[in-house]
Amino acid sequence: MVVTPLPFPATLNPSLKCFGLHEAYATFLSFLKQRDLPSIKRAAFKNVVAPLIREQFSVALRNDLPGLDGSGVRGWKNVRLVQSAPTLN
Q1: Tens digits of per-residue pLDDT, 28-76?
Q2: Residue 16's domain is classified under what CATH number?
Q3: Cα–Cα distance between 47 and 53 in angstroms, integer?
Q4: pLDDT grade, residue 17 (50/70/90)?
Q5: How buried is residue 55: exposed, middle or buried, by Cβ count under 10 Å (0-12/13-18/19+)?
Q6: Which of 33, 47, 61, 65 would bridge with 18, disulfide CB 3.0–4.6 Å?
Q7: Which has more confidence, 15 or 87?
Q8: Using H for helix, E for strand and C for coil, what is the string for the chain?
């Protein structure tokens, strides 16, 4: 099976609560801005990244993760960002 790499470094960690879709998208937009690349819409990002995370970590995008205000947040349970954005060399 070929696993396509994620557009940002992430890891599976059962001790963590969640990695929100908003956080993932904001990180990716920052990555694009650093490289003077055009941004993409959040829906397009979600359509590409959600299947990659499912394939790489066997974790589905959820709608019921706890947000700071107690409301449900979309994201991935037990996944965390390893590095906020790769540095330019």
Answers
A1: 898 889 889 999 999 999 999 999 889 888 889 998 887 777 777 888 8
A2: 1.10.10
A3: 11
A4: low
A5: middle
A6: 65
A7: 87
A8: CCCCCCCCCEEECCCCCEEEHHHHHHHHHHHHHHCCCCCCCHHHHHHHHHHHHHHHHCCCCEEEEECCCCCEEEEEECEEECCCCCCCC
pTM for the structure as a whole: 0.70
Residue 29: give the domain boundaries.
Answer: 10-81
Is residue 89 a part of any domain in this protein?
A: no
Question: How far apart (Å, rounded) are the C-alpha atoms in residues 40 and 80?
Answer: 22
Residue 58, CB-side half-sphere exposure with 13 Å CA sphere = 1
